[in-house]
Amino acid sequence: MPLSDTSKAIGAAAQLLSYQLSLRSGAHVSVGPIEETTGTSGARLNLFLFETALDPSMRSVALDVGQSPPLWMILRFLLTAFDATGKSDTIAAHRVLGAGLAALQELAYLPVEGIAADDLAALLPNPEPLKVSILEAGSELLSRVVQGSDERYRVSAAFELRPVMIAPPAPASYNLLVGIDYEAATVIGEDGIQIEVGPSLQPTIEALDPTSAALGERVRIDGEGIVADMIAKIDDVELPLVVTAEGAIAVDLDGAELTGDRISAGPRALRVVRTLPSGRRRSSRPAILDLQPSVAAVAVADVAPVLASDPDSPLTATLTIDGALLGGDDDDLFVGLIADGVCVAIFDELSDLPGPAQTRKRLVIPEAKAVPAGTYRLVLRVNGVQARQSPELTLEAP
Description:
Elements: H1 9-25, E1 28-31, E2 44-54, E3 71-82, H2 91-106, E4 109-110, H3 117-123, E5 130-135, H4 139-145, E6 157-166, E7 180-181, E8 186-187, E9 205-209, E10 212-213, E11 218-223, E12 231-234, E13 237-243, E14 249-252, E15 266-275, E16 281-283, E17 287-291, E18 294-305, E19 315-324, E20 333-339, E21 342-347, E22 351-352, E23 360-365, E24 374-382, E25 385-386, E26 392-395
Parallel strand pairs: 1-2, 10-17
Antiparallel strand pairs: 2-3, 3-6, 4-5, 5-6, 7-8, 9-11, 11-14, 12-13, 12-15, 13-14, 15-16, 15-17, 18-19, 19-23, 20-21, 20-24, 22-23, 24-25, 24-26
């Protein structure tokens, strides 16, 4: 789901609450001002959004390193009950209010289901579960919220829903990696980057060198009690250990084993595992290896101006990205376009193309995110780990 759909998250959250409360309480649920009605056909609950606030505990939490944090909102509602005649503050209305409170208690974590596709699209990108918490609703709060010549005091319950994510489109601060010569497509090595490591504990991986690597590369494993007849285990994929010419223990990141249907790029747990004479297996504590995605090529097609009559019109295009571990359906995948050291646009909605898993992606630049003509470098990040390759591409009007 594109992050741009989250601009509708407040309305979608109210619709979701209405559906789930009605499902669990058996009463009709309306959303709007707290008003008595006459001639109704049944009891109802009313949801009134009386306050919004920023979630202070998540104010600086971003979806990916280099992106601006989205808005993490707290929505506060009043829940008011009406009986079958449309009256509040009757015994029958109080029974309905009790059913509504029981439903809220059941909805400690609000399931995102049962609503229209547009509302689902606004809430599904939220990586955090929606939490319902009942609040104190004293007479001071109710008197402050329900006021005016046409309103009167009504007993209501208050609760809040958090965190509701609204992610406005904003440029990220992605940049090219340090220690890479992009023109020659080579690694500069220690002349460009320093990696500091420290000791850990037994059967012990003390350090990985490097701590971030791509398929086809070798990672040296330093530690104690590690011998060549052990195996390395990266998440659930097992690989043999090798002895280097210098006598060090290492693991080769075999692209034939670390395929997109078995593993994704991102921070991965690397362990060394020994098989004991009893047949049991003893594992070291994990070390974190940043498994990098790889971008082999980017093809540009279908470049078109948004306004054909304007020579300076921004452009739409279709990009085909080939590589390895480019992200699956459950991965956080972001693509940025960088020009003159500035990230001009980011995209999170890519589709798979036929072929082995995670090897081909299609990115359609829509009119809403059209970019100026020019030369860009493409930055691809999967689960917070950036591909070392940032191919250059040119967008120009046909």
